[in-house]
Design brief:
It is built from 15 helices and 22 strands. The strands form 6 sheets. It has a 7-stranded mixed beta sheet with strand order 5-7-3-14-11-12-13, sandwiched between helices. Strands 9-17-16-15-10 form a 5-stranded mixed beta sheet, sandwiched between helices. Strands 6-4-8 form a 3-stranded antiparallel beta sheet. Helix 9 runs parallel beside helix 10. The protein is globular and about 75 Å long.
């Protein structure tokens, strides 16, 4: 049964056996399913002209520096080089590359190329040429003179640091929730009830800080974009993006041209996970095409995607949680310090979810909550969107605190959650005063408890890795082996099965064989399984 809301606000039920659905319960082919199945061109580099200009970026080796001089004479003489641009050649109006609706809460703190580089990998020059070989040679011939400055690398020391990441006067933000002269992008406080008073009345108070490091997405198709001038004189951008409509506005702002002169297109993309919710690369080929009127493309290397793209925000989350001896959670105080890096895209919004998506989980019986945060600039690569969008970091810290409370009170972690979680119909002050009109969290937990047989397995006793552990390992096929990888994989799996080890989810990736092998939990059983697998590999390699 599914519950839907009527106009009056009450809830009613309807049956799933309706026969008049157009889409629900039916197989609806995806528009590009045949192309994907048959290996037809669907991704950016498949569908754009291959004779266009190739664009690459010369990047800074310094975390913080001023570019004093860029010598491009020798590089410009390389046969096939079309153009080389430096900070002197680009518009001086700052813009934002976050995929957010205007007016963006993220600051306008970027230039296409800036005289001040703020992190290792910041672009110093744009090189466009007829082929990759010519562009690579030109990049090696460019000579840059830097005035190296002291960087601020530790986000816990960034606030009110004498080193300013953005000292420029034309920095601007529509949100205006921080103080750039303190390296502070954003500050927020949201309190409900008297947290300090309630905490003082609690039997137990848990207080700890958890540091959640930055993490990069692992999308298969690297960041890339192609630009051309269409038949109407508009700049046409085809990019691997999650924010096609925002890309149009971002390019227009960066180039200082009307949005009507930009057309953005998104083909099938090979993964993004939030990283492509930022226009990481589009402005560079857009600028080249707008200046030369020639088509061009920029494709990031895997190294660039790991070192100068858009990872998850590094955060330090401090939780104070107060409860009574019966497990009743009465007050939660959560403070997040977030590292936005060299630029502020998504910095003001991800941090909010670390509190506003964590604290409401324990609405049931909680009398007071407080969420506060600071987002600071540092001289490391700028962060951005990643699955969970800030909620991941906050929930990890809060859930860790709840587990610690359960252990201190000698309570089952499931029991303490069922006693305190938000349920359908509850008012959630910590989530912008919303009511949980639809919430099945309690039923989800009960379902997981039953399916996992939690009551039979908890508490875990003995030398155990954990309940439901799984290992992953990679086996590299001998490069000189003449046997196809698929046959080799099959033989290894069969040999392991004969020895009592069942391998599931085997896959072939190039010449690497990858397995996920479910094993029983103890260290001894884990080692026994690995020994069997090793024997099976030796027999077949």
């Amino acid at each position: 049964m599914v519950r839907i809301s009527e106009g009056s606000g009450s809830m009613s039920e309807f049956k799933r056996d309706r026969k008049d659905y157009h889409m629900v319960g039916k197989c609806v082919p995806k528009k590009d399913s045949n192309q994907l199945l048959l290996g037809k061109p669907v991704f950016m580099d498949d569908i754009v002209p291959q004779d266009c200009l190739v664009v690459k970026l010369l990047r800074s080796p310094h975390a913080h520096a001023l570019v004093e001089e860029v010598k491009t004479v020798a590089a410009a003489k390389v046969p096939g080089i079309e153009a080389i641009y430096t900070w002197k050649d680009v518009p001086k109006e700052r813009f934002c590359i976050a995929g957010q609706t205007y007016p963006e809460p993220s600051p306008y703190d970027r230039l296409i190329l800036d005289q001040r580089v703020r992190c290792v990998g910041d672009p110093v020059a744009i090189v466009a040429g007829e082929n990759e070989k010519a562009v690579d040679k030109a990049l090696r011939l460019i000579k840059v003179k830097y005035q190296v400055l002291e960087p601020v690398l530790d986000f816990r020391k960034a606030l009110d640091n004498e080193v300013l990441v953005h000292p420029e006067e034309n920095w601007k933000s529509y949100g205006n929730t921080g103080d750039v002269k303190r390296n502070l992008l954003h500050h927020e406080e949201d309190a409900h009830g008297d947290v300090e008073q309630i905490l003082s009345e609690c039997d137990e108070v848990i207080e700890h800080s958890w540091r959640i490091k930055a993490a990069q997405q692992g999308y298969m198709e690297t960041i890339r974009a192609y630009c051309e001038i269409d038949r109407y004189g508009r700049l046409h951008c085809i990019s691997s993006t999650q924010i096609v409509f925002h890309v149009r506005r971002i390019i227009a702002n960066a180039l200082g041209i009307p949005k009507s002169m930009v057309r953005a297109e998104k083909p099938r993309i090979g993964g993004g996970f939030g990283a492509k919710q930022t226009a990481v690369c589009e402005v560079y080929p857009a600028f080249v095409t707008w200046m030369t009127k020639k088509p061009c493309k920029l494709i990031y290397s895997r190294k660039e995607c790991q070192t100068i793209a858009s990872p998850r925000h590094e955060m330090e989350v401090t939780v104070r949680l107060g409860a009574m001896k019966d497990g009743h959670i009465r007050a939660i105080d959560l403070y997040t310090l977030s590292n936005t890096g060299a630029y502020g895209e998504h910095g003001t919004t991800t941090v909010g979810l670390s509190g506003h998506k964590a604290l409401p989980l324990y609405t049931g019986g909680c009398e007071a909550t407080r969420f506060s945060c600071d987002v600071v600039y540092t001289n490391v690569q700028a962060a951005g969107a990643y699955r969970g969008y800030g909620a991941t970091q906050g929930i990890f810290a809060l859930e860790s605190a709840v587990n610690e409370l359960a252990e201190k009170l000698h309570m089952d972690p499931v029991e303490i959650r069922m006693k305190n979680i938000v349920r359908e119909g509850m008012f959630m002050p910590a989530y912008f005063g919303e009511t949980a009109n639809a919430c099945a969290l309690d039923r989800c937990i009960e379902h997981c408890v039953d399916n996992f047989h939690w009551k039979e397995k908890y508490p875990v006793i003995g030398d155990v890795r954990g309940m439901g552990a799984m290992i992953g390992l990679e086996l590299v096929k001998d490069a000189e082996s003449k046997e196809p990888a698929a046959e080799l994989t099959s033989k290894v799996i069969q040999s392991a099965a004969q020895k009592g080890l069942i391998i599931e989810n085997a896959g072939i990736y190039g010449n690497v064989l990858r397995f996920l092998a479910p094993l029983v939990i103890t260290d001894e059983q884990l080692q026994a399984g690995l020994d069997i697998l090793e024997e099976a590999i030796k027999e077949n390699m």
